[in-house]
Amino acid sequence: MTDRKAIFISGGGSGIGRAVAQRFAAAGWHVGIGDISEDGMAGTRALLGDQHCFCVQLDVRDRGQWDDALAAFADHAGGIDVVFNNAGVPIGGALVDCSPEEIERTLDINLKGVLFGAQAAHRWLKQRAPGSCLLNTASAAGIYGVPGASVYSATKFGVRAITESLDGEWAADGIVVRDLMPGFIETPLLDIAPNRKSNEAIRDRVRDAGLEITPVTAVADAAWAAVHGQRLHTLVGKTARQAQFFARFLPGLIRNRNKASGRPLG
Fold this sequence. Notes:
There is one protein chain. This protein is 49% helix and 16% strand. By secondary structure, the protein is of the alpha/beta class. The protein has one domain: NAD(P)-binding Rossmann-like Domain (Rossmann fold, 3-Layer(aba) Sandwich), CATH 3.40.50.720. The strands form two sheets. The protein has a seven-stranded parallel sheet, with helices on both faces. The protein has a two-stranded parallel sheet with strand order 7-8.
């Protein structure tokens, strides 16, 4: 057992996962990275240095790989204080344009992967309780659904529900459960097409809609605050805060805007 704290991050080879890894490593934490991309993990390791970064290949859809990855990191770090359930994929566009394969992949990674990660994390977090934390990446898309985000929103509403359920379920074990709800974040995911039938990057649609793109460092700071604070859901960025405001106080307005626009964002 070591006094140095440890965080394991799924999807740590790029984007939000990489930024959170840098934030916690800078504070002296052991950082474990699980990712399906070996190149991505190598890039994160190069930024963090070997003394801070432990990498293991992980497909979050595979329950057994979760067990193996967390056991390997716990053996390396002496335990696990935080598991960041972050791995996810985007999907957008009209529901009728999304293929069954795209829908199934998104559900498997964004939703089933979070459930598997939580299951595998529990034993390790319980050993470090009280004060250990399961942190999930939800989204502003989990606040109110918009045209063109039915599948993605379904997964992120689900992550929000998982967070709320486990926050109560694991309280007796001394484990806190939190999630992040970012809007559009400056990561490579913005530069890919939302589905196979589209040739327009997500970034272009976001800009056309006049929506804010938040720096990824803001999510890293929010992750640190979420792990050490009391908020169950942490909103990140102007887009997320606006969505929360309209959903809470003006649900009729946001519903009418959705109907008027009709155009899928993705």
